[in-house]
Description:
It contains 5 helices and 5 strands, in the order ββββααααβα. By secondary structure, the chain is an alpha+beta fold. The chain has a 5-stranded antiparallel sheet with strand order 3-2-1-4-5. The protein is 45% helix and 24% strand. The protein is elongated, with a radius of gyration of 20 Å. A hairpin with a 2-residue loop joins β1 and β2.
Amino acid sequence: MTDGVIEHTGCVVSVDSRHAVVKVFQTSACAACKAKKFCQSNENKEKLVDVFGVDDKTIKIGEEVTVCATASMGRKALVLAYVLPLLVLIGVLSMVLWITDNEPLACLVGVGALIPYYIVLYLMKDRIQRKFVFWIKGYDNENDKERLEVRG
């Protein structure tokens, strides 16, 4: 990570006009560990990343590329995926427990309150997706950085 930019190496899976799908391999911090073959933890994951604004004439399927994102995007994703749901859960749980003094009911209502949160998150996915802009290092970098500054 340099200058607030997160980079992951991946392989281009598909390309069409102005859009590419890149399979990114996320490895855990213990990937370089000498004892990893004895460890039961397998935290290697494959993720598909949509990259918009690429030229389909310069990027080919199967090509290895570096996908970039800003660190602030990672923080926003962390807040949306973990922090806000935790606050909703704790807030609703505390409120229902304070009102009813019934722990099982408070737990059920607290967990149930996450359903509307994730429904709202799903309904706003297009709006949220516009705030998360990825670019491929070395390809149309300037255009994507301009878009990133406007949207971020």
